[in-house]
Every structure is written in C-alpha cells, then in structure tokens.
Amino acid sequence: MAERRIVGDRAGWRIRVLTKHLRHLIPGTSLEASICLAYEPPEVNSGDAAFDKSAMRALLDGHDLETRDWLFNLMAKSDLFVSRKVGDKVFASPDFNEPMDEMRDKTLERIFFLLRNGVFKDFLKDNSIENSLKQMAVWEVLGIFDHALSVKLGVHFILWGGSIVSLGTQRHHDKWLRITEELKVFGCFAMTELGHGSNVRGIETVTTYDPSTQEFIIDTPCESAQKYWIGGAAKHATHTIVFSQLLIDGKNEGVHAFICQIRDANGRWCRGIRIADCGHKTGLNGVDNGRIWFDKVRIPRENLLNAVADVTPDGQYVSSIKNPDQRFGVFMAPLSSGRVTIAMHATNQAKVGLATALRYALTRRAFSVSTYEPEMLLLDYPSHQHRLLPLLAKTYAMNFAALDLKKLHLKKNPEDSKVVHVISSGFKAMFSWHSQRTLQECREACGGQGLKTENRIGNLKAEYDVQSTFEGDNNVLMQQLALLQLRERGLLELLDAEVKKIISTGLSTSEALMSSYKLAENLGKAFTERIMLEIFQRAEEQATGSMKKVLGLLRTLSVLSGVDEEPVFLRYGFLSPEQSQLIHREVPAVCAELRPHTLHLVDSFGIPQPFLGLIAYDWVESNAWDNVSGGSSQSIV
Ligand SMILES: Cc1cc2nc3c(=O)[nH]c(=O)nc-3n(C[C@H](O)[C@H](O)[C@H](O)COP(=O)(O)OP(=O)(O)OC[C@H]3O[C@@H](n4cnc5c(N)ncnc54)[C@H](O)[C@@H]3O)c2cc1C
C-alpha cells in the first residue's frame, strides 16, 4: 500500500511539474504524463521519520534554539541577505560576483542592520554563561549565512572586544566595552606580521616607554615587522590591539598587547600610522584585510592591557606572573575563543554541504540496473552512500564535540586553560580539515550542479578555506598538541622509542621531535578522535528509542570509517589484517542501515531552506525558464 501511495505521489508530482512548464511555454497545450522529468522532491524518496526530528535538532543545537530561529528569520526577510527569489522560495546568500569593495561595504551594511535589530545587545557587558552561549548561537547562524560576516564581527567582538575583556582591567572595560558593543569604534587585532605568523613569539614590532610623558612608543623597525592580514584594517577599523615586544630599560619582557587608535573620526590615518590593503583573496573578500606600520606611534600608558603585567608611571615593569612562558600563554588566550568558534563554524559548513548534497542525492537519478527499469536514485548506490554517509556520521560526532567544547570553554577555571587549549587546538584542526574534505566530496556528489553559485558548496569551500591556517595553523597545532601532554599509549610509546633512537645518533631532543612529526601528528589525531567518541556516547545517553538507535548507528559509522580510512592503525600494528578487513566490510552495511534516515538526519540540522544550496529539483520545480532567459543568476532578485 505504502509503495503504491509513493508511486502515486510521484506520478502526480510529475504531472504537476510538466503542466507548469508547458502552460508557461505553450499556453493552451493539452497535457499527458511523461517520464522526461526524472526529478522528485527529496521527501518523495524518503519514508516517515523514525525519530522525533525536533528532539534531534534540540540535541544537536543544544541551546538557544529560539534565538537561532529568530535570527535566521530576520535575515531571510531582508533583501540585504536574500540574493535570489525562486517562485515561493527565497535563497539567502551573499552575492559572490560583486566586486571586492562592494562586498566589503555590504558586510558593513549587514553589520549595522543587525546592530539596529538589537542582535549585539549586551554582548560584552554581560559575561554570564547564558549570554555567552547565546552569542555563540548568533555567530553560528551568521556563519551559516556568510563566513566574511562572522569573521568581520568575530574580529571586532571576539578578538578586539575579547582581548579587552580578558587581558584588560576595569579601566579598559569602562572605557571601551559599551562603545565596542554599540559599534561606535571598530576594532581589529594586529598580531601577525609579514615575517612571523605561526611563530608569534618572534614578532619584531617593538614598544618602549617614555616616563617623561608617560607614553608607550610603538614602532615597526623593519619591513618584516609590518602587521599583515589584519581583518578590518584596510578600510573600516578605527582601533587595534597591537601585539608587540615590550622593551623596558633595554630588557625584552616579551610579547604584550596594547590599544592603539589607527583612524580618526573622518577615517583618516592617525599620526604615525600607515595602512595598505592586502588586496583580493581567493575567498573571504567581504573582509578588508590590511597591513599596518607604526612609525614611533605614541599611546597613553593606560593603553597597555594590564591584567597580568604593567608598567608603573616611572617606568618599572611589574607582573603577577614571573614565568615568561606562562605570561606569553595568557596573552595568547583570546585565540582559544577563536578556535572554539572555528570548530563550530567548520561543523556547520559541513552540515550545509551535506544537507545540500544529500538532498540532491535524493532527487537525482542516474542509470538503470537493467533496460526499461527506472533509473536509480544516487543515494541508492552503495558507493554514493559510502562517500557521503560516513561524512554525515563524522559531522554528527563533530557537532556533539563542538557543543561540549563550547561549554568547557565558557565554564573553564584558570587551571583548565591548558586542557581547553589542547582540545580546542585539536578540534579546530581536525574539524576544519574535515569540513574542507566534506565540501569537496559534496561538490563532486552534486555533479555539475555543484559548480553553480546557488548550490553554495563551491563558495563555502573558498570562503572557509582559510580556517586551516588562521588562529593557529592546523599542522603546527596538531604537533604542539602531541608534545604537550597526551597519553595515547601505543602511539606515545612509539613516539618515545623513535625520539630516543634519534637522540642516540647525537641530535637534540627538539630536533628528534621535529623529525618524528608524523607520529606526533597521528598522536594528536588519535587523542582528538577518542575525546570525540566519548562525547558522542554522552550525547547518545540523552536519547531514547529510535533516536538512540540512529545515533548509535552514526557513532559506529564515524568510528569504523575513521579507522578504515586511517592506515596508521594498520601500519603500527594496532589492528590485525583480519580486523581491518572486517571493518572494511562493516562500513557499507552500516551505511545501508542509515540510508532510510538520511533526509531526516539532515532536516534535524535545523538549517532553514533559504540557507541551503539550490539543488537540481529546485530548478526543475519552479525556475527552469529563468536560466533560459539569459539573466545572470544573481540578478533575478
Ligand atoms: C584571511 C586571513 C585573515 C587573517 N586575519 C588575521 C587577523 O585579523 N589578525 C592577525 O593577527 N592575523 C590574521 N591572519 C594571519 C593568520 O593568523 C596567519 O596567516 C597564520 O597565523 C599563519 O601564519 P603565516 O601565514 O605566517 O604562515 P607560516 O607561519 O609562514 O606557515 C606556513 C606553513 O609553514 C608551516 N609551519 C610553520 N611553522 C612550522 C613548524 N614549526 N613545523 C612545521 N611546519 C611549520 C605551517 O604549517 C604552514 O603550512 C589572517 C590570515 C588570513 C589569510
């Protein structure tokens, strides 16, 4: 019966689509059903959900569902965010065909629209965990719309504002937080230099102190010390946090952070400041990245962010942290928040890509098993399931892990900082790599449609590509991770043996660790995956019935496929060849079991239709003639 109902729905649907087409093209035509259109909405090719999708969505999002829906809705109703309307559907996405300057101005316009609508209210003045979680929900939703928008705001609120909160004291909070929240100042974060990116300790900007005027003097002593890539600096920022070596009485006290104004109220550079544009990028052109030189710029003594170190009016250096390594660690703290945000964004991008590609796989048919048989749905090919469903399972695992990380980060005590640093570094690196890999697979899984701007996936890849290198380069983070404190036994023992062997040849410990980089990186991955598995199991405990069963399948698939694709397990003898073969056979079986749940699993992401990519079905259903008319796809608003 159920089968007959679905077949009936399909036939009815085809007739409706054809009717629409032919009436439009040849008014008055008499119509018959035809099989020439092989697209059906994804819902036709999925049964009813075996679990409660709203409960699954609540488990995935974890907090602030109302805020998320309110913001999605606010954007989907504004022409500033909607690039295209197709029949009764709207598609919210930036126009990536706009010239760079227009994209940057549009980002700013969107920010002020959000400000007028109260989106940033109490973002910095209210430090409660509830308010911080709400902010994170806002970043997530904005990031689903556009990475440039979330980066530009992230630089202003998380890096500039967050540095003032965590590295500054009351006098800084009183002076800067309210005007930051109201966007009366626009802040940026100048850490990276042309000569030093990953190695922040090596930066060459120098700050000295003049007791006669009670001012600091910031200087760019050479070309490699110019600040580079500074988000917001090229056009809009009025102020920056500058990271610089602090020289007191000729002694280098290490990297410190200062507040410095770079533009006046008319947008002109302040005295001693020079700024240049980093120019067009392969993605993220809605952000104005710039270069800054400081030519002996004078700032008041109070502009040193002095939570852990200060300079007295007569020029004495004082610090509550004597150990320079620990002090440096504190100054890097704002980057932890950035890494938590990247872990969330990376998960969400994978979700948008998968929701789009899996919906496509549930509408698109290609080839028949035998002549006269209907063509098969892409998602019914085991190979297609094998390409996409393990990525879906891993994305679920990442979702729970990112949610856990957010809470760990917001609730941390000072003594937890190192743990948060290690976990956020591992998650940031693994998730951003996973997201890029997923988007590429999704783009290919949509065939030619994957290249269409409206499909979103290609642009997401370009816009989010930078995640693997900023806020700590992934490769560097993964090695640091392993060296710090991890105890993944098998790999750790191997690493230990290898390092000792190299040292016995006369090399230093650092040199030995450097040449054992592959083992160190694998150790980092093993650690991260184990933590993710533990978090997944905890999330599963909150579910019951069918939902628990489906989550169990996803967990199994994420672990099995992770092991299956990672030759390190076999190479180092953690798995026998027989175990490896068994896993290899199990992955397709679990994929097949998950297949009926696919649409409901991506629906549970809670990402509304306007924020997903346009799939082939959308074109057939309501838009086939728009393209024929020759208009640019971005101009039909
Ligand atoms: C779009 C964009 C926006 C940015 N926004 C800001 C901003 O607002 N503020 C800011 O301060 N910075 C910003 N940055 C800079 C960013 O943080 C740096 O690019 C990043 O830290 C990497 O530094 P780098 O580019 O100098 O790379 P490098 O440090 O030169 O690294 C190059 C390569 O060398 C490898 N490598 C480096 N060290 C090691 C090692 N020890 N062992 C093995 N391999 C190593 C890395 O893995 C990497 O693959 C931004 C960058 C971009 C592209």
From TrEMBL:
Its cofactor is FAD. It comes from the Eukaryota. InterPro entries: ACOX_C_alpha1 (IPR055060), Acyl-CoA_Oxase/DH_mid-dom (IPR006091), Acyl-CoA_Oxase/DH_mid-dom_sf (IPR046373), Acyl-CoA_oxidase (IPR012258), AcylCo_DH-like_C (IPR036250), AcylCoA_DH/oxidase_NM_dom_sf (IPR009100). GO terms for molecular function: acyl-CoA oxidase activity; FAD binding; fatty acid binding. The active site is at residue 471. Residues 336-482 form the Acyl-CoA oxidase C-alpha1 domain. FAD binds at residues 192, 231. Coiled coil: none annotated. Residues 188-297 form the Acyl-CoA oxidase/dehydrogenase middle domain. It holds the Pfam family Acyl-CoA_dh_M. Keywords: FAD, Fatty acid metabolism, Flavoprotein, Lipid metabolism, Oxidoreductase, Peroxisome. It is found in: Peroxisome. The keyword Membrane does not apply. One of its GO terms (cellular component) is peroxisome. The keyword Oxidoreductase applies. Belongs to the acyl-CoA oxidase family. PANTHER family: ACYL-COENZYME A OXIDASE-LIKE PROTEIN (PTHR10909:SF352), ELECTRON TRANSPORT OXIDOREDUCTASE (PTHR10909). This is Acyl-coenzyme A oxidase. The lineage of its organism: Eukaryota, Viridiplantae, Streptophyta, Embryophyta, Bryophyta.
